[in-house]
Amino acid sequence: MIITRKAMGRRTLLRGMGTTLALPLLDAMISSTTAAEAAAKARMRLQVIYTPNGMMMQNFTPALAGEGYAMTPILKPLEPFRGKFMVISGLAHKQAEALGDGGGDHGRSCGSYLTGVHVRKTEGADITSGPSMDQIVARQFGEQTQIPSLELGLDPPSLVGSCDTGYSCAYTNTLSWSTASTPLPVTVNPREVFERIFGDGDTLDPKVRIAQLRRQASILDSVAEDAKRLSGSMGADDQKKIEEYMQSIRDIERRIQKMEQGGSEAIALPAYARPAGIPDSFVDYSHMMIDLQILAYQADMTRVGTFMVGREVSGRSYPEIGVPDAHHPLSHHGNDPEKVAKLTKINTLHMEQVAYYLKRMSETKDGHATLLDHTMVLAGASLADSNRHDHTNLPVIVAGGLVKGNRHLVAADNTPMTNLMLSMMDRLGVQQDRLGDSTGRLAGLNA
Amino acid sequence: MGGKLWFASQGHTKKGWSNIMAHITKRSGLAVAVVAAAGLAGFALLGNATADTLVPVTTSAAIAATPPVSGSAMPTADRKHLLQQYCSGCHNDKRMVAGWSVMPLDPANIGPHDATWEKILRRLSLGEMPPKGMPRPPKEQITDFTNWLATSLDGMAAANPNPGRATLRRMNRTEYGNAVRDLLGLDLDVSKDLPVDDTGYGFDNIADVLTVSPTLMDRYINVAGKISRLATGQTSRTLVTTDYKISKDLFDNAFGVPSYNERASDDLPVDSRGGGSFKFYVPHDATYTIQLFLNAGTATESEIDANNRYEVKVPLKAGLRTIGASFPKRMTLDQVLIPRTTKGPRTGIPPTVEQLALDVQVDGVRVQQIAVPSVANGPNVAQAFYQRDVMQISVVGPYDVKGPGNTLSRRKIFICRPSAPLSESACATKILAALARRAYRRPVSPLDVGRLMKTYNTGRAGADFDHGIEAALEELLVSSNFLFLRESDPKGSAPGSVHRISDVELASRLSFFLWSSIPDEQLLAVAEHGQLGKPAVLKKQVARMLADSKANALTQNFAGQWLYLRRLEYQKPDRRGFPDFDQRLRAAMLTETQMFFGGVVRENRSALDFLNANYTYVNQRLAEHYGIAGVYGTAFRKVELDPALHRGGLLGQGAILTVTSYNNRTSVVLRGKWILENMLAAAPPPPPPNIPSLNDAKNGKLLTIREQMEMHRNNPVCASCHNKMDPLGFSLENYDAVGAWRVGYAGQLVDASAVLPDGTQFEGPKGLQGILLARKDQFVEAFTERLMTYGLARGLEAYDMPAVRAVRYAAAKDDYRMNTIIMGIVQSVPFAMRRTP
To answer: What distance in Å separates the CA atoms of residue B676 and residue B779, rounded to the nearest whole number?
Structure first.
């Protein structure tokens, strides 16, 4: 692919290139952790991990409820963390069903996943979902950090064509919605993630960096003022667009202020090479993105993250584990044993990524405990059996120090997934009465 | 019954549409009135250049104004009757199939339900309705009805031009990158530093979908900083390593295939092999180290280690440079060298080691030659006498910085130099006013420049003149004036009223459409002088723009998305099933279709070439894939196609056939759906919930895909769409999942015969070509719809369809040539006009 672009294009290609800098961590960029011990306790995180195209439920759900259940093939990679996570059955996302809108179950899945909202069927003009759970948490947790939340993923946003019949790609590209009409883009390029966390690395001197940030702040001030002046003569729709622009500026300005306030004490972070581009191997790629997210938590740059292992309708194939078939068509397996076996392999590989998250979190110190102890992890999907486009009895895993592990909790059939999310937010100390189609709280997270 | 009888008694239908048109045109009084009305709304600007377009529009307006005006048209009452007789069985208030009913429709007053009428027109034109098995009126009657309907809808649109809704549009990342290139002469792809944009209606430039998030703003401010430092030559002098990894055919477990005995890039010597090259932006006039990492062994192609690193130190001038490295080719084309391999830990190094010459090039000129041994040792293997390959090129620097250098960017930015401290402010004002005018794409006000000067002063105070400009440039690049394509409405214009956009706004719409970038100096100047609205000037500018290399943006961005070419990069055909597929073939496929599309545009060829061109562009690799003899080397050339090769038009091209396949097999559904959506604008409705899955066995017998699909279509719910998609896909089954021709697979002969829902039988790609050519009006309208969606940066609505048809009418008179289609879009109501919100 690189050769191609060179033959046709006139432009320098950044893909596949990268700059390596040994990374002396910028003291000023990392907020003060002198009060680390006390702060770590109060510092909670939320991490959501989403896997696409449903799950082979018969190879996911443990046979027995309660403690000490036998591991299933797909859950196997999580075995080392048995005491740190629970499996929940019976939850549903009714709002992802058609409800009169016809096909497009994949298209609705991600828009509903963290919102509990039945998204509006549209190709573009008036996309509507709801504020998502991670963003509600980020509104509160984000006050404390430079970046309110990180949205990461492994599939580039759909490049061409439609994503699912009648549904804008905005619905499948992300899980995170800061408002009902503002989806937050997922970053898929490790280098972009790195620069988002640590700046572009051109200047390594913290003093210069601070000066640069001050200049950015004053420039942003100026352009915001200008935009405000110009928006006076605009129609309502255009004003909304400009308002988005100004809101984003305020967000960056707040971040810069945070950075300036940050103390000068660094916490020890591992040296990390600046990523060049997207690694060829799926597992290398996934691990690199997870490492970056962990790095961001470690430096307390953010406390909220979502990670999309893939987009709905993803056609990624996995020849390295003996699955040369495209994922999505495979997920309509028709109970063909060979297809079921292959799909189970993909599901298991995806679960290994969840396991890698837990592993990295449990290895990373946070105060006197570990990152995992201070994180609420939700992993799962908005489809159960993708073959039937089923949004009930979803695959759900909740992990971390805020829940009681080693259990298989069975909720009443069709309990809204949003009930669980409200309970998770309770545990995180985020006040929220309702979320989308919630009907109450899911009991039993901690007992 | 009445309708039928009435038609049987008419002799006009056979005369054809042009006779009917001529007949109507004579009723000139009405037509003049309509032209006058349209002129008020801004049509006058379209002038002579669109006379062709306007004729059918105005005459049809006459029809709409006084139905039933035409002697050939059936009375209104009969049209209503026709709908009731043939359509109301399903489309009634109770059943509401496809969401509409004939009950509220009134042929005498089509205005209130124009969207439904457009839907009826489309399905009737495609011959899809009434469905097979249901009673149908005679063909002539349908034709007469669709002619009347199209004319009426067109007339209504001409009388009340509706440009639709134009939302404030943000540049997408491609446009941003191109704008930076054109504004600052910084020819490096900064778009990759911005997040991928969301798509809507199949394109990533749709205004409604392009939002601004904090993530994006964070990138904007950082990228703006990087760009302004690079462009003004103020990048820090920190040592940085930039790596370029050469793409290789690496598969599972890092085991690769040996290198190819051919030229790796157009930037390398013709008789070279095993190399690579990349564009590197040199930030300062200074010394840099170029490092070459060679492969450690053919079995471990992906290994990049310091033992196999060679380096040279060279002075480089600031600016964009091409850094390359390659080996001179010493063997004939088909000669293969068998390496001698010794397994075991670092043993078996032969006593005499042959040396290979590794050439290092900067901008195509050899700067040094290094001797490297034709042997390498990995931890587990040693090989001798094999062709070595460059795996990665790194540039490390800068050392001994001499200065910012005389780069194109600096020449473009610093159009004056202050001779004394006192003249700095005047020079800065001059520089920033010039930059802002181009970046904001309009004349600038003292307020615009004053704002930038404030930032300049802050930057200047902390350092020097250049840093002041750098700071102001950073502000300019995140300003809403740059990032958004703002359009304003005439002062005091009433909400809902319609007006022509200003020439300056038109210049931006044009350049973003054809170049995906900002207007150049000439276009902007013509617009500022109020000349661009003149049809002759506009036509000249469009022709000039299409001839410019920047029009390659249409290929990259429009065709890249229309034809799904952007997906090719992510397609990973199964190595076991398609061992022939490699990086070179992938690259060649993409180049073929890009050159083909670009050629049709640049040479002003007919859009029908997309369906049935008898030529294409190939190099040796692709020619071998297609079975074309006599093509040698990596360079592409135009070849005439022998019909026996089964190629010709887009549907015979490897790129299209590959992106509409899965990695391990073809899909008749994907291909059929792709053709319906992109070539006929007849996207199938979404699949219903709870789709039954395919069964690949019945009574213990394995079924072919064709048999499985037939079973699937036995289910009437599935059949309604698959009857349309599958036949189109089946006719292409002779092409495998990477577009190679096959007569059979999995032990069976390919059956490429197919039957359309209306019973038409056809077979293979040639048959499909015939089917599509018979629907060339639909194809050209579908193509126009895609191109117009892209050009307007919004989804099309029912009220835009008359504009689409007008383009098609005009194009039909000019053999569907691209310039006419593009001019038609540029002069259409939605492109040239705007509604005050």
So the answer is: 10
Whole-number Å distance between alpha carbons of B670 and B729? 7
Is-contact A69 A346, C-beta < 8 A? no
Q: How far are the Cα atoms of B39, B487, B488, B556 from residue B836, in angstroms, in the given order?
A: 18, 10, 8, 33
| DSSP H or E stretch at residue A292 | helix A282-298
pTM of the model: 0.80
**Calpha distance B501→B300 (Å, rounded):** 61
Largest pairwise CA distance in chain A: 66
Q: What is the DSSP letter of B13?
A: G
Which residue type, as a one-letter code, is found at position A96?
A
Q: How far is B32 from chain A (nearest CA, A)?
A: 35
pLDDT category of residue B249 using cuts at 50, 70 and 90: low
Phi and psi at A371, nearest 5°, equal -60, -40
- Grade residue B115 by pLDDT with cuts at 50, 70 and 90: confident
Q: Identify which of A444, A407, A439, A394 has the alpha carbon closest to the alpha carbon of residue A424.
A: A444
Of B209, B594, B662, the CB nearest to A8: B594
DSSP B325-350: EEEE--S-TT-----EEEESTT----
Helices (H), B9-138: 17-25, 28-40, 51-65, 76-86, 114-125
Q: How confident is the model at residue B351 (pLDDT cuts 50, 70, 90)?
A: very low
Q: Does B534 have pLDDT greater than 90?
A: yes
**Which residues in chain A are closer than 8 Å to B575, comparing Cβ atoms?**
319, 324
- Sequence-distant contacts of B699-705: CB under 8 A, at least 24 apart: B704/B746, B704/B748, B705/B665, B705/B668
**Considering only CB atoms, which chain B residues are within 8 Å of A103?**
685-689
pLDDT digits (tens, 9 = 90+) for B541-599: 999 999 999 999 999 999 999 999 998 988 888 877 888 888 889 999 999 999 999 99
Burial class (CB in 10 A: 0-12, 13-18, 19+), B328: middle
Nearest CA in chain A to B586: A1
Closest-CA residue of chain B to A245: B212
Six token digits for residue B421: 């401290």
Which pLDDT band, with edges at 50, 70 and 90, does B98 fall under? confident
DSSP H/E element including B288: strand B285-294
Of A104, A165, A184, the CB nearest to B215: A184
Query: Tens of pLDDT along B397-429?
Result: 899 999 999 999 999 999 999 999 999 999 999
Question: Percentages helix, strand, coil for chain A, rounded to the nearest 5?
Answer: 40, 15, 45
Nearest CA in chain A to B583: A1
Tokens 């059918």 map to which residue?
B56
Pick from A4, A2, A13, A272: nearest CA to B242: A13
Residues 6 or more apart from A208 whose CB is under 8 A from it? none
Hey, what are B536's tokens? 């002759």
Q: Which residue in A10, A189, A223 has the most chain B C-beta atoms within 10 A of its own C-beta, making it the best mutation to test that interface?
A: A223
User: How far is the C-alpha of A289 from the C-alpha of A309, rounded, in Å?
Assistant: 10
Order of strands, sheet of B365-373, starting from the edge strand that comes earlier in the sequence: B272-282, B319-328, B355-362, B365-373
| Nearest chain A CA: its distance from B241 CA (Å) | 5
Residue type, A219: I
ipTM score of complex:
0.77
Rounded to an integer, what distance in angstroms lies between the CA atom of residue B695 and that of residue A255? Answer: 55
Q: How does DSSP assign A121-159, residue by residue? A: --SSTT------HHHHHHHHHGGGSSSS-EEEESSPPP-
Q: At A98, list the tokens.
A: 């058609």
